Amino acid sequence: MMEGSLSKWTNVMKGWQYRWFVLDENAGLLSYYTSKEKMTRGVRRGCVRLRAAVIGIDDEDDSTFTITVDHKTFHFQARDGSERERWVRALEDTILRHGRRERWSRCVPAPAHRHGDLERRISEADAYLQIMIELVAKMTTRVSELAEPQDKNKGQVILDHSNAMLDNIKHSIVLLQIAKNTVNPVNGVYQGPTNPSQSHIKEELSSRVELGSECRELSTPSLPITPLEHLDAPRQAMTLLVPDTSYSSSEGEDDFYDADDELVDVGTQGPSASRTCGAEGASEQEPASPAAVDLPRTRDGEIDYDALYEDDSDSDLGSMENHGSVVTHLLSQVKIGMDLTKVVLPTFILERRSLLEMYADSFAHPDQFIKIVDQPTPRERMVQVIRWYLSSYHAGRKSQVAKKPYNPILGEVFRCHWDQEGESVENNTCKQEVGDGPVPWCSPDQLSFVAEQVSHHPPISAFYAEHVNKRIQFDAWVWTKSKFLGLSIGVHNIGRGLVTLLDLGEEYSLTFPNGYGRSILTVPWIELGGAVVIECVQTGHKANVEFLTKPFYGGKKHRVTCEIYAGTDKKPYYTAQGEWNTRMEGRWTESGRSEVLFDVSSMRPRRKRVAPISRQGGNESRRVWRHVTAGLRAADTDAATSAKRRLEQTQRDAAKKRVDTGDRWITQLFSPKGEEGWEYNMPLSKRSDAAHAACKSADETR
C-alpha cells in the first residue's frame, strides 16, 4: 500500500480539490477519499483502475500528471516534482505488474501474425541495441580524448543523452518480451528473455523494472506458480473490490474535509481558496457576481467602463488558477492538429481587451519607434528598427497567465495615440490637431494608431500608425491560424508590416513570429518561436531574427538571436542575443563594441490614450466589449459568457442577412493590396502628396 494527499482536477468551475489517495499495488487500484478519516471508514469517493492505464506528464510543469484509462482522463497534482516522481514511479510499477493480460484458451492458439510481429520487433530492437552499444563505446572513447574543456562538456552532454537512449532501448526489449510471452505463454507463465544475448538486459533493469506475478516465474516457496487461467482469482493481499470500470462519484456528503489536517501548498496551480471548496457534485462557493466585487463606478453609480480598461492589474489570475486547466474543455472539442478557428473557448481564459488593442502595444514604447528617423546612417537606422521591434513584445503581455484577447468582430475598429517623451496634453492647452489621419484629434507631435477587423474568415486584422512631424508611418496586416498540439496551442501569424521613412525614402518590411500557449494542462504561458526577416530594399540591409523555443532538456525560455547584414556581405555587421521579455545585448562586429540593445526593467511602457467610451462609435473595440470586460473583471463568468454570446449571435445574424440579400461587406479604413495584403486608405504619404499637389496648384494659379 502507498497513500498520501494529492489534488484532483474536478471541472472548470470547482478546479483542483484535495483528496486522500491510496494505491493498492496488488489490486491495481488507485482509490481516493475526501479525507484520511473517511478512508479509515471506507467511504470511497472514486477509484482509477490501473490495468492498461497510461501515465502522462507535462515536461513544462513538474507537479501535474494524468492517468488515462477506461476512456477517461484523470488529472492530478502533487506538491512538488519529487512527490510527483514518487507517485508516478509507483503507479508505473503497478501498471506494469498488472500489464495487459490478453489470455488465450489452450484450445485456441494465439494469432500467428501477432506472435510473428512481436518476434520481428524484438529482433529489430536487438539489432538497434547492438549498433547503439558500439556507437556509445566509440563516443565514450572520443569524448575522453577531447582536450578543450568546452568541447568535452558538450561531448559529455551528448554522451549522457546517448546512454539514456541506450537504457530506453533495453527497456523496450524487455517490454516486447513480456508482450510476446503474454500472447503466447509457456505453461501459462512468462519465462523471461529467451535470447542469451539479452540476458544482460534483464539483469541491468531488474532494479527498476519489477515484473508482476503474471509475467515471471515465482520463486517464493509459499506462493506456487500461478496458472494463467487463475490470474483473475482474488489475491490474498487484495482488500478492495476492483470495479469493472474507473469512476468518480458525483454524489457528495454534506460535509467536506481537506485531505490533510494542515494546509497543503501546491504552488501556483493549487486552488486559492481550497477550504471553501465543496465535495464533487455538491454545491460550492459560487463565483462572485458584479455586485459582490468592487467595480469602479462613476458619480452616478454606473459602471465606469473606461476605468475597467485602464486597470492593468492581474486580479483575475486567481480565477484562472481556480479554473485550472484549459485542456479539459479543449479535449471535448478538438483533436491534435485541428484548426482552432471555429472552436469556442471558455470565457474564463479571455484577456480583458480586443486583439486589435493588443496590436497597439507594438508601440507601447513610442520613442523607440520615432527614434528610427533620427539615426544618421542606414546601419544605425536598421539597428534602431530591431530595437523597437524586439522590445515591443514584452509590453503586449498584460497577465502572468497566457490568455487570449477577444476575437474582433467584423468591422470592429480601435483608435488610440501616445504622447511623446516630455510632452503632456494636460500641459498643452493650445494643442494643434492634425484634423485627419487615424486619430484626427491628436497633435502632430503624438503617435497615432488605428486598427480594423477587415475579414472574418480568415480573421484578418489591419492596422496603421504614424507620427506627422517625424514623417514616419507603419502599415501592417496579420491573421492568425491556431492549432491544438496536445499539451500546447500553436498560433501561426501570417502577415507583413512596413515601416516607411518618408523624407529618407526607406521602407523596412518585416514579418511576425509564431506564438505558443505552453503548459495548458496547468497554468499556461506564452512562448514565441520561428524566424523573422526585416529588410530594407533601398539600402540593401537585412536582419535575420530567430525566436528560439525552449528545448526539451534544459535551456532558457524566450531566447532571441539576431544578425544584421549589409548588401551581399556574408559576415554580419551587428549581432544581438538575449530574451525578448527581459534584456538583449548587441555587438558591432567590426569595432567589437558591445551595448545593451534594450532592458525592459528600465523601459516603462507609455499608457495609450483612448477616447472615452461615451464618445466612441458603436463599432469601436472598448464599447463593443464593455459588458464582457465588466463580467470578467467582476469574476462573473456567466455574465461575461452571456454578453459574449450575444455579440457572436449578432454577428451570425448579420452574416446570414448579407448572404440572403447578396450584400458584400465593405471595409471602412483599409483596402486590399495585391493578392492577400491590406493597406490604410489615407496614410501620411498620400496626404502629404495631396497637400503638396494642392500647394503647387495654388502657386500656379497665383
TrEMBL record:
Pfam families: Oxysterol_BP, PH
Name assigned to this protein: Oxysterol-binding protein
GO biological process, one term: lipid transport
Entry GO CC: cytosol; Golgi apparatus; membrane
InterPro entries: OSBP_sf, Oxysterol-bd, Oxysterol-bd_CS, PH-like_dom_sf, PH_domain
Residue stretches making up the PH domain: 1-96
Domain of life: Eukaryota
Region of interest: Disordered: 268-297, 637-659
GO terms of molecular function: sterol binding
Keywords: Lipid transport, Lipid-binding, Transport
UniProt keyword Transport, yes or no: yes
Biased composition (Basic and acidic residues): 645-659
Family per record: Belongs to the OSBP family.
CDD domains: PH_ORP9
